[in-house]
Amino acid sequence: MSQNIEIEFKNMLTQDEFQLLRIHFNIEPEQFKKQANHYFDTNTFALKDKGSALRIREKGSSFELTLKQPAEKGLLETNQMLTASQAQKTLSSGQLPEGEVKYAVSKLMQNINSLNYFGSLTTVRAEVEYKGGLIVLDHSYYLNTEDFELEYEVTNEPEGYKVFSKLLEELQIPLRPTDNKIKRFYAKKYNLLQE
Q: pLDDT tens across 149-176, in order?
């Protein structure tokens, strides 16, 4: 189990802006790696209502269960590695394996057995070290939707914001309000449930 605070700046991109950044950072197509996030919540969005998100991230043959919760700065992530069989069991039943993530979720909601698998968001991602942080270019697919996103992950929030803002300004990319992937996924899921 591990916990860490995540500080990142995000900006939605057009497909052309995504390609501009790919060229700017000399990112070759083979540098992009595929990962899938499998999301869980209750039918009443109990975790979402607390500003939290629960996922299994699948990268190659590894599976990591993560709970993200609001923190004073950024998000508190509680992470737990899973075996392939634990991941499959969780995906099929919504039941969490024993461990720190299950304990953290149980502190957020009373009926932990009401969790359901909501669906997956697949991302093709490239990462590049840049001025003390990590540039992340994401092309995501979920619920008949695709989008493009730039993230800048840092440990120093004020300095990171300056670097991120300057990069967008230099490349003439407008700063756009950007929800994280789970919020975008949930908004689409909610809309589909209302149809």
A: 999 999 999 999 999 999 999 999 999 9
Structure tokens at 86: 């634990």
In angstroms, rounded to a whole number, what is the distance separating the alpha carbons of residues 71 and 69?
Answer: 6
Q: Are the beta carbons of 77 and 104 closer than 8 angstroms? A: no
Per-residue pLDDT band for 1 (boundaries 50, 70, 90) equals low
Q: Dihedral, CA atoms, 149, 10, 80, 86, nearest 10 degrees?
A: -30
Q: Say which residue the tokens 């968001």 belong to.
A: 121
Query: What are residue 54's DSSP bridge partners?
Result: 40, 67
- Domain span holding position 147: 2-194
pLDDT in tens, 62-102: 999 999 998 887 788 999 999 999 999 999 999 999 999 99
Q: How many domains does the chain have?
A: 1
CA distance 66 to 79: 5
Number of Cβ within 10 Å of residue 102's Cβ equals: 18
Phi–psi pair at 120, nearest 5 degrees: -125, 150
Domain of 145: which CATH number?
A: 2.40.320.10
Q: Which residue has the tokens 């461990």?
A: 99
d(C-alpha 145, C-alpha 111), whole Å: 31
Q: Is residue 3 predicted with pLDDT exceeding 70? A: no
